[in-house]
Amino acid sequence: MKEIVVLCTAKDKAEAKTIAKALVQKRLAACVNIVAQIESIYMWKGEVCEDGEALMIIKSFDGLFLKLEREIKSMHSYEVPEIAAVKMDELSADYAKWMKDVLKS
């Protein structure tokens, strides 16, 4: 499995924490960082919107992505949550080992 970083915004820090804890407890994520306040400008239903959000930076494996996506969608308040994964091209060996140890079933 390849290590990934998943970016996901939430309506606020409280929602992000709820989702993050569930992902870690279910071993779908090794770690989730939360940036409590970001500003997002986006197109939604034909209008330009501007909102404050929280950003989750989720560390996982590509083989867990579909389960992780389902879990996020089951808890998320948005109709269409952002769930975007990027494969890690480089990662320290120690961190990669830690991730594998944490995410073992």
Which key phrases capture this entry?
Alpha-Beta Plaits, 4 strands, 4-stranded antiparallel beta sheet, elongated, 105 residues, alpha+beta, 3 helices, 32% helix, 39% strand
How would you describe this structure to a colleague?
By secondary structure, the protein is α+β, with helices and mostly antiparallel strands. It has one domain: Alpha-Beta Plaits (2-Layer Sandwich), CATH 3.30.70.120. The protein is built from 3 helices and 4 strands. Strands 2-3-1-4 form a 4-stranded antiparallel beta sheet, covered by helices on one side. β2 and β3 form a beta hairpin. The longest helix has 13 residues. It starts with a strand and ends with a helix. The model has no long low-confidence stretch (mean pLDDT 96).
State the helix count.
Answer: 3
State the distance separating the first and last CA atoms.
14 Å
Helix content: 25-40%
Q: Estimate what percentage of residues fall within beta strands.
A: 35-45%
What is the CATH C level class, in words?
Alpha Beta
Mean pLDDT: 96
User: What does the largest sheet look like?
Assistant: 4 strands, antiparallel
Structural class label: alpha+beta
Side-by-side strand order of the widest sheet: 2-3-1-4
What order do the helices and strands follow? EHEEHEH
The number of domains: 1
What characteristic shape results from the CA principal axes? elongated
Low-pLDDT stretches are: none
Overall strand count: 4
Query: Could you please say which CATH topology applies here?
Result: Alpha-Beta Plaits
Q: In CATH terms, what is the architecture?
A: 2-Layer Sandwich
The radius of gyration computed from the alpha-carbon positions, rounded to a whole number of angstroms, is 14 Å
